[in-house]
Structures are given as structure tokens and as C-alpha cells.
């Protein structure tokens, strides 16, 4: 086959059908293997460490550990000083490694699935990861689609396929896709399939596809209705055959599955800011120690040989001198004192806090998952916590952004009202005064009055007056308008009728029909037309067949202009059996009413219809306006030329199609309007009112509740609205959605899909900050009063468990109380439980308690022979007792686990101190018993 020179003019890709070798030799296409994992065995360690050290606190502790390795600054044991950082890095690495192992396992299972691929004249199984662009693939019913494919044929003679796109866009209704008539009758049993597809470069737009196909020098257009995408499933179709155009990471599903941005909770962001302030405080404190050390050395520089810790040689038992002590002079000793102080006071910025927060969030997520109020019995599914980084933000939400259809509503459309030729009609559940006196004729009584099928909703009860109008044996404008009104409902759509059982065409055919369509609105309108006697029972890409009150009517479809967000309408060009050509249009009122004929723009019928639309909208109904137009032969010829050029164009196809549609969508004749109800899901009105009372503002992306409305919003526009709120306020945002078109909005919001809970837990930092209560004990000396292991055990054993248990289990109010009094939620907006003021108040309280804990034991044992390490053991026990009492004062709900963790922590501290002080190699060996005995004796005396 000779390649048309026009095919290589722009940046498009060429696919040689059933010739993957030539396709992939000329162009560098990716394979079909997908990878969602972050790491490999080789890069795991360096890459994971690089990601972890994005936390500034980790770099801080790495520097501290490095300083402690220098001989002049070795305050703690060199190995022990590395333990906290290594512990945190190891735990986080194990968690990240496990998560990535699950991704690897998922990728392996996905890549090793099999599909039938045309090889050597027959379809043979082939693993997904080995499928190449250009190959012809066969997918059977209920099977997943391995890559993006252009349909060549289906088991249906008309070339129709039904696809479920739930994994792609969250919509449960089936979508219809078509194979071109030029390929739908091909034989796929040999290697006779050949041709060239020229398509656009890979992109993430799942709603558009621009391409054309050349078969035997004949060029045909391809659009979004001719492609099936990876991640979807074939339904209600025995098999489909297609050619691969995008594979692997280039498929639209993978391009839309980009890694979501990393989110940090407001608490963690506040903690990072306060860490900076703590660092400033630490710097000042270390500077004070260094200055004090300098002044002390100046005062005692002649006594350095005899003073403890600064004599020029160590003294040991016996007559033999110890190793020499390196003295660097006052300036360097002052500098070393400053660095050593940083090491001693490092506990002020607790590295264990990050692990504590992760464990608290893990425990909270367990209770969210097990919450019986978030269990759906119909699908046997529970709430899933996809991110552990933002649990506490659920109690701080101020703005909620929600998709409407399927999220707030049931996505079950019911035809409720119609305005035809200026008259208002409705079903029996929404009776209007205008229909009370309408005459019911004999024809009305014998006409079909309901429709019911697998995908249709409860029986549609027709309006007797409108049914009587359609069956009256008289002519007139009102009946003509009503006839064209229902012709438009039945024909201007993409709905496919499915026959459950073979049946003859007649007035009862609707009882054996189901309607499948991409839009539930269209299904409801077609079902309504069926109920009124305009039954769509056949559709192909070239014609539709209707049964109009028992009379068969075949209409040729010359062209279809699909709905787009710019025009906000769709139209179909139909040729009737008498060769008359009409344009049938439906769309939003703001779109249709501006393109009516001049004589209809402000006539009585138009004004009355507008009032009806206002009434429908006030009732929360979804409205559409219907119009029509007769095409002259000259207009038809010009439109056909424009339409053919636009549908085969690869550049600016959307713009050309829009211009072609605008040519025929003008000077229309208004037919009427419809009102469709999409009921809110159970509990939604009460929930919205509860959110309002709680001070939460709701942005609903197209509904009629008392909230801010954003209608006909594109995915990036949804994200832009969320970003606007985030950039203008400091309030927390939450986004709820159910499809790929909501992903951008969900990623932009502070919190993705979730529930609004009670006030966030009280700061888990309290006990770690309280460790600063012993830091003044060393005065101007940088010799630590604690043993190395006591310093490590403080955060790991002594105080961590109570903090975690309280963080998970404690709550101030029950969920019943919070739901009964939503205004209590506003405490979270005001940050009453944790804010900057409380942080500095806590710091001041810490300093006060530190002075008390230091001074009391210091003066009690002033004349004793207890050394600094013995005092350190006493200070350790005192700090742990005080921290746990302080934590106990903040507990709102006491349970058995709380008691065990609080008082067990104190007992564990006593036990550990006794064991550590019983080890001969530690400095305070045997002195802890003397401390407690002496203190007890003095207390009694």
C-alpha cells in the first residue's frame, strides 16, 4: 500500500494494521508492559533515603549524629547516637518497601494476563506485556481490554459494542462504541486485514480521539466512538476485534493515573513551623551555655588541672596516670561547648514524633475502616483509607467540593415534566393545574402508558392530556409540534435499543426492550418517548428505526453533532422517507433560546416555555430545550461538504466540527422543553443542612441545593475552583468525586474523598516537648546527666506508648452528640485544641516544670555524694511521672487501655532504670538505690 504524502506532514503516528513489525520499526512505540512501582532492588536504598531526607528534621538528626562521631563532641556513645535515626529510617523504609512490593505484585499480575492476538492467521493467547502497537486483538465478553484499540468489528452485525468504563470514569452505565461499516464485515480468520491508521499523539483526554483510517485508498474518519480504552470491560457483546493504537504507559488510562501529589496535614505543617522556632530556641539556649562556659573557663583557667572534666589528664584508680585530656584553649572549648550543647539538647526536637504520628494515624484508620456507619451492605464494601497523612485534617474541613451525579444523587433519571407548544404537562406524581381538565379520548385509553426494562427505571406514568394530543385524529400546529417533540426525544441521542427476546414490532414492543446509552438523561428521554408511543427499536451508524403508534418509520442518519461544553447542545441530521431533511436539536436553554428564528425569539410560546423552565429548575429538575429545522437542498449540500472535511481532518477537528454544527444549528423552531428528576440519595438534604450548621461551605458541581453551584465544569476547571479557595483562604478543603473527571479536583484539595469527623486529636507532641524539662540540669557543662540508653529509651519506651494509645482512643464527644449539635464542629475551625498560642504556653509551662524538677532534687541532695549520673536517673523517673500525669489531665475518655499505658509506662520506667543502673559498665552503677533510700529517709525526717 502506498502511503499518502499528507499522512506524514504533521506530528501524528502511523499504525499499520496487522503489521506490528513495520509499525514498531519505523516508530519508537512503548511496549504494553506497565509499571506503577517506585523502586527496584537496585535503587531502593538510595531513592528511599533521598525521599525520606526531604524532611528537614531528618537532616538535622543526621548532622547531630555526625557531630557526635567527632572525639571532642562525643557526648553520647557513637553507636547509640545513631540508633534513633536508624530506627526511624528503617521503619519508614520497611513500610515504603512493603507498599512498593504490593505495587510490583499488582503490576506482575496485570502484565501476565492473556488476550487473543492475531498471529499466523489465527487468534492465539498472548501475554499483555508482549502485545505491540499494530497487532489485532480479540476480546470476549466480560474480559478486560489490555490496551487502547480502534474497533474493527464486533459480534453484532451492525458493529456495536457495549463497554463498561467504571474503572476509568466511575460511571456504571454502559457505553456504546462502533466499528466502522467499512471494517465491520471483514473476516478476521486470516492475514488479509491491512490498512493504515493515522492518529494523534498519546494524550490523557479520555473523551476525545482524533484519527482517520485508509482502506484501499478510501479514507474514513475515526472518533472517540470508535475506540475502546484500557481498563474498560466488554459487556453484552460476544466479542470485539480491534487494532492496538496506544499501549502500556501511553494508554489514556495510564496517562490519567499519574502519581497524586504528596499531601501533608495542617498539623504536620504547623509542627514543621514550630520545629523551626524550637531550633531558634535551641540555638539561643546553646549560645547561652557556650557563653557561660567561656566565662567559667576565664574565671577558672588556672584551676583546669584540678577541676573535674577539664583537667589535662584523666585520673584512674591506682597510681598510674590516665590518658591525656586534650585541651584546645578557651575559644575552641567554647565552640565545642556550643556544638556539644546541640547534641545534648537534641531531644527538644523529637525524632520519635514522626513514628508516633504514623502509628496514631494507622490506629485511627483502623477505626474508620471498621466503622459500621461507613459500610455498604449492597456492595459488601467498607470505607478504605488510602492515605495516612491527613487523618487529623478531617476535623478541620471548612469547604466541601462535591460532584453531583452519582455522588449526591442516585443517578437514576425519571421523566417528570414536559412543555410542548407552550403547555405544561406532567406525570401523576407531579400533577399541574394545567392538565386537570384535559380531555381523555378513547385513543388515549388504548395507548401504551408505561415502559419498563432492565435498565429503565420504575414505570413511566404518562400525562393523559399529552397522550390524547398525540392520538387525536386532527391536524394542527400543536399536534405537529408534539409529534416533532417526541421524534427529537427518540432520534437525537446515542442510545442503543437491546431486544431481550425476538418480537414483532407493535404497540407492546417496549416491554421487550432495554436501552443502553452513555447518558442516563438520554435513556430517560428515550424511555419517555417509548411510553408515549415513539419507540426506538433499531439503531446503526447509518439509520434508526422507530415504531410510531404501530407504524414503522426508518430514518437515515446523515450526521451527528455530539454534545460539547462550548455549544452545550447536540444535533442530528435526519432524512425522512419522503426525502425531507430535518435537523433535530436538544440542549441547554441558554444555548437553544439564542439561536431560534427571529419570529420566535420573543413570541408567547417562547416566553411561556421560559417560565416553565424556571419552574422546573426551582423544583430541582434537569432541563433541556428541544428545537428543529428543515434543511433546503442547498444547505444540505454545503453541510455535507463541511461535515466530510471536518470528520476526516486530523488538525483542528473539534473546531471544524463545531463550525459545521453552527452552520445548521441556527434559525431553529422551538418545540418545547423537558424536566428530568435525578433524586438525591438518602440523607443528602439532612447532611447538607448539618454541614451548614457546622459552618462548612459546600460547593456542589451542578445541583440545586442552597449551596454554591458550578455547572458544566471541565475537570481542570474543577481543580481551578478548589485552587482558588486554597489560594484566597487558609481554610481546609475536601473534594468528593466518583470518576476520572474528578481526579484533578480531588488531588488539588487538602483532603480527598472522606468523611468529616470530630475535632482532631490533641497534639501528640506534648510529651515529647516535655522531655525538655531536664535539659537545664547540666548547667554550663555539656556532660549529660543521662546514660546513653536512658536517652534513647525515653522516646522509644518510656513515653511513646501512652501518647499513641491516647492519640488513637481518646475523644471528647460521641458521634451522636456531634451529629445532634453540628455547631460543636466549629471548634475545629477555630483551632481551639491546638494553635500557636497554646504551643508557646506549653513551652513556657515546660520551662517552669524543668526548673522545678531540676532545683528540688538538686538542693535536696546538695550535700550528698551522689554524682551527676545518679541525679540523672532520678530526673528521668521524675520527668516520666510528670509527663504521664500531664497527659492524664488532658484525657477525656478513660478506658482500660489508657490506664494500662499511662501507669504501665511509669512502672516500665522504674524497671528499666533499675536494670540500667545495675549494669557495671554504666557510670551510675549501684547509686540509684542510694538515691531512693536517702530521699526516703530525708522525706520521713
Give an account of the 3D structure.
- The protein has 941 residues and is an alpha+beta fold.
- Among the domains are: 5-32 and 131-255, Calcium-transporting ATPase, cytoplasmic transduction domain A; 270-361 and 763-940, no CATH class; 446-677, Calcium-transporting ATPase, cytoplasmic domain N, CATH 3.40.1110.
- A 9-stranded antiparallel beta sheet has the order 20-19-29-28-27-26-25-24-23, with helices on both faces.
- Strand 25 and strand 26 form a beta hairpin.
- Helix 4 (78-111) crosses helix 23 (788-798) and helix 24 runs antiparallel to helix 29.
- It is elongated.
- The protein starts with 12 loop residues before the first strand and ends with a helix.
- Mean pLDDT is 77; it is low at 1-9, 311-320, 429-458, 503-510, 754-784 and 925-941.
Radius of gyration using CA atoms only: 38 Å
Mean pLDDT: 77
Number of helices: 30
Number of strands: 32
Which regions are unreliable across 5 or more consecutive residues at pLDDT < 50?
1-9, 311-320, 429-458, 503-510, 754-784, 925-941
Strand order of the largest sheet: 20-19-29-28-27-26-25-24-23
Which structural class do the helices and strands define? alpha+beta
Give the helix level as a range of percent: 40-55%
Shape: elongated
N-end to C-end Cα span? 110 Å
In terms of DSSP E residues, the strand content is 15-25%
* Biggest pleated-sheet summary: 9 strands, antiparallel
Organism: Ambrosia artemisiifolia
Domain P-type ATPase N-terminal: 15-80
Active site: 403
Transmembrane segments: 56-74, 276-298, 335-355, 866-887, 894-916, 922-940
Amino acid at each position: 500500500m502506498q502511503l499518502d504524502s499528507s499522512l506524514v506532514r504533521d506530528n501524528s503516528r502511523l499504525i499499520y494494521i496487522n503489521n506490528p513489525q513495520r509499525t514498531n520499526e519505523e516508530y519508537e512505540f512503548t511496549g504494553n508492559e506497565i509499571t506503577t512501582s517506585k523502586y527496584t532492588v537496585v535503587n531502593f536504598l538510595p531513592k528511599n533515603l533521598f525521599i525520606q531526607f526531604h524532611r528537614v528534621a531528618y537532616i538535622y538528626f543526621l548532622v547531630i549524629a555526625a557531630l557526635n562521631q567527632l572525639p571532642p563532641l562525643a557526648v553520647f556513645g557513637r553507636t547509640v547516637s545513631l540508633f534513633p535515626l536508624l530506627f526511624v529510617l528503617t521503619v519508614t523504609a520497611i513500610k515504603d518497601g512493603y507498599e512498593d512490593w504490593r505495587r510490583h505484585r499488582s503490576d506482575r499480575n496485570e502484565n501476565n494476563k492473556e488476550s487473543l492476538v492475531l498471529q499466523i492467521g489465527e487468534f492465539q493467547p498472548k501475554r499483555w506485556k508482549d502485545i505491540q502497537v499494530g497487532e489485532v486483538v480479540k476480546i470476549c465478553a466480560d474480559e478486560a481490554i489490555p490496551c487502547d484499540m480502534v474497533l474493527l468489528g464486533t459480534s453484532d452485525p451492525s458493529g456495536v459494542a457495549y463497554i463498561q468504563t467504571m474503572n476509568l470514569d466511575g460511571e456504571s452505565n454502559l457505553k456504546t462504541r462502533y466499528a466502522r461499516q467499512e471494517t465491520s464485515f471483514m473476516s478476521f480468520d486470516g492475514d488479509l486485514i491491512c490498512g493504515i491508521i493515522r492518529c494523534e499523539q498519546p494524550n490523557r483526554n479520555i473523551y476525545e480521539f482524533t484519527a482517520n483510517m485508509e482502506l484501499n485508498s478510501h479514507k474514513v474518519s475515526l472518533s472517540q466512538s470508535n475506540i475502546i480504552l484500557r481498563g474498560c470491560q466488554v459487556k453484552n457483546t460476544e466479542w470485539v476485534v480491534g487494532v492496538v493504537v496506544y499501549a502500556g504507559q501511553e494508554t489514556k488510562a495510564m496517562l490519567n493515573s499519574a502519581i497524586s501529589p504528596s499531601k501533608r496535614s495542617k498539623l504536620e505543617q504547623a509542627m514543621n513551623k514550630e520545629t523551626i522556632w524550637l531550633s531558634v530556641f535551641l540555638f539561643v539556649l546553646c549560645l547561652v551555655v557556650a557563653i557561660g562556659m567561656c566565662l567559667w573557663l576565664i574565671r577558672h583557667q588556672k584551676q583546669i588541672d584540678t577541676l573535674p572534666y577539664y583537667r589535662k589528664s584523666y585520673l584512674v584508680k591506682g597510681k598510674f596516670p590516665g590518658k591525656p585530656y586534650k585541651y584546645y584553649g578557651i575559644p575552641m572549648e567554647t565552640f565545642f561547648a556550643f556544638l556539644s550543647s546541640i547534641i545534648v539538647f537534641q531531644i527538644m526536637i523529637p525524632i520519635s514524633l514522626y513514628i508516633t504520628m504514623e502509628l496514631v494515624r494507622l490506629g485511627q484508620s483502623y477505626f474508620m475502616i471498621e466503622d459500621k456507619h461507613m459500610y455498604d451492605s449492597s456492595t459488601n464494601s467498607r470505607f478504605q483509607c488510602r492515605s495516612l497523612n491527613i487523618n487529623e485534617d478531617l476535623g478541620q474541613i471548612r469547604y466541601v467540593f462535591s460532584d453531583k451525579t452519582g455522588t449526591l444523587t442516585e443517578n437514576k433519571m425519571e421523566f417528570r415534566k414536559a412543555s410542548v407548544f407552550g403547555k405544561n404537562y406532567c406525570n401523576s406524581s407531579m400533577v399541574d393545574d394545567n392538565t386537570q381538565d384535559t380531555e381523555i379520548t378513547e385513543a388515549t385509553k388504548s395507548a401504551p402508558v408505561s415502559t419498563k426494562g432492565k435498565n429503565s427505571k420504575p414505570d413511566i406514568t404518562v400525562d393523559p392530556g399529552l397522550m390524547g394530543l398525540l392520538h387525536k385524529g386532527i391536524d394542527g400546529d400543536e399536534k405537529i409540534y408534539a409529534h416533532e417533540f417526541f421524534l427529537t426525544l427518540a432520534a437525537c441521542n446515542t442510545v442503543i435499543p437491546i431486544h431481550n427476546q425476538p418480537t414483532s414490532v407493535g404497540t407492546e414492543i417496549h416491554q421487550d426492550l432495554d436501552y443502553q446509552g452513555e447518558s442516563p438523561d438520554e435513556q430517560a428521554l428515550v424511555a419517555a418517548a417509548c411510553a408515549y408511543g415513539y419507540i426506538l427499536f433499531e439503531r446503526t451508524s447509518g439509520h434508526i428505526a422507530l415504531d410510531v403508534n404501530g407504524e414503522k418509520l426508518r430514518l437515515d442518519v446523515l450526521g451527528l453533532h455530539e454534545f460539547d461544553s462550548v455549544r452545550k447542545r447536540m444535533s442530528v441530521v435526519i432524512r425522512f422517507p419522503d426525502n425531507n431533511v430535518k435537523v433535530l436539536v436538544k440542549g441547554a436553554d441558554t444555548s437553544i433560546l439564542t439561536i431560534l428564528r427571529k419570529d420566535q425569539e420573543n413570541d408567547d410560546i417562547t416566553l411561556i416555555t421560559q417560565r416553565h423552565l424556571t419552574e422546573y429548575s426551582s423544583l430541582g429538575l434537569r432541563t433541556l430545550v428541544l428545537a428543529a429545522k428543515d434543511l433546503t437542498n442547498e444547505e444540505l449540500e454545503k453541510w455535507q461538504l463541511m461535515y466530510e472535511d471536518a470528520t476526516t481532518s486530523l488538525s483542528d477537528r473539534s473546531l471544524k466540527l463545531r463550525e459545521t454544527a453552527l452552520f445548521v444549528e441556527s434559525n431553529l423552531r422551538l418545540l418545547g422543553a423537558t424536566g428530568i428528576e435525578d433524586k438525591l440519595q438518602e440523607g443528602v438534604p439532612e447532611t447538607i443542612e448539618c454541614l451548614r450548621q457546622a459552618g462548612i461551605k459546600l460547593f456542589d458541581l451542578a445541583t440545586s441545593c442552597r449551596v454554591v453551584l458550578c455547572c458544566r465544569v471541565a475537570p481542570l476547571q474543577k481543580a481551578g475552583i478548589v485552587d482558588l479557595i486554597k489560594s484566597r483562604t487558609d481554610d481546609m478543603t475536601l473534594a468528593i468525586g466518583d470518576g476520572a473527571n474528578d481526579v484533578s479536583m480531588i488531588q488539588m484539595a487538602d483532603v480527598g474523598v472522606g468523611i468529616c469527623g470530630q475535632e482532631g486529636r490533641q497534639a501528640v507532641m506534648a510529651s515529647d516537648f516535655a522531655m525538655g524539662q531536664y535539659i537545664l540540669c547540666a548547667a554550663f557543662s555539656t556532660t549529660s546527666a543521662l546514660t546513653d540508653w536512658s536517652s534513647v529509651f525515653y522516646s522509644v519506651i518510656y513515653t511513646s506508648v501512652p501518647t499513641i494509645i491516647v492519640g488513637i482512643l481518646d475523644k471528647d464527644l460521641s458521634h451522636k452528640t456531634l451529629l445532634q449539635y453540628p455547631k460543636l464542629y466549629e471548634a475545629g475551625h477555630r483551632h481551639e485544641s491546638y494553635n500557636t498560642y497554646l504551643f508557646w504556653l506549653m513551652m513556657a509551662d515546660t520551662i517552669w516544670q524543668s526548673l522545678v524538677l531540676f532545683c528540688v532534687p538538686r538542693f535536696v541532695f546538695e550535700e550528698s555524694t551522689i554524682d551527676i549520673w545518679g541525679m540523672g536517673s532520678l530526673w528521668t523517673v521524675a520527668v516520666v511521672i510528670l509527663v504521664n500525669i500531664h497527659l492524664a489531665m488532658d484525657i477525656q475518655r478513660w478506658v482500660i487501655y489508657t490506664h494500662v499505658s499511662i501507669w504501665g509506662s511509669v512502672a516500665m520506667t522504674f524497671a528499666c532504670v533499675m536494670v540500667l543502673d545495675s549494669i557495671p559498665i554504666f557510670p551510675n552503677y549501684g547509686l540509684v538505690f542510694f538515691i531512693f533510700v536517702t530521699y526516703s529517709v530525708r522525706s520521713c525526717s
